Amino acid sequence: MNTANLIEVYYDRIRMIGAEQADTVIQNIYDSFPISIIEILSSDIVREAARFKAVGKMSFADTILIATAVCSGATVVTCDHVELEPVEKQGIVPFFWIRPQF
């Protein structure tokens, strides 16, 4: 997971349940999953993200998320059903949804 993706999850949780509870959710994510924060993006991730951005209507953070998962063989952990369910349907990477779709 990179910091842009964690920001997306945190931002969503702040909007949905407030900052204090969002802090708890983020801490639970750190405690429950084998997460490594990637601070520097490789050229492979940058190129892959650019390809996703060029062909889809995806936010910058989501393109980095998908590219990072593709390049590292990781599972995408997200709550962004709107933008990412179409990607999941393509079978590019596995997904773990942390919030059901409403």
Give the arrangement of secondary structure elements.
Elements: H1 3-17, H2 19-32, H3 43-55, H4 60-72, E1 76-78, H5 81-90, E2 95-97
Parallel strand pairs: 1-2
Helix pairs in contact: 1-2, 3-4
Notes on the protein architecture:
The structure is a single chain. The protein has a two-stranded parallel ribbon with strand order 1-2. The protein has helices at 3-17, 19-32, 43-55, 60-72, 81-90, and strands at residues 76-78, 95-97. Helix content is 64%, strand content 6%. The chain has one domain (3-97). Helix 5 (81-90) links the parallel strand 1 and strand 2 (95-97). The protein has five helices and two strands; from the N terminus they run ααααβαβ. By secondary structure, the chain is mostly helical. Helix 1 (3-17) crosses helix 2 (19-32) and helix 3 packs across helix 4.
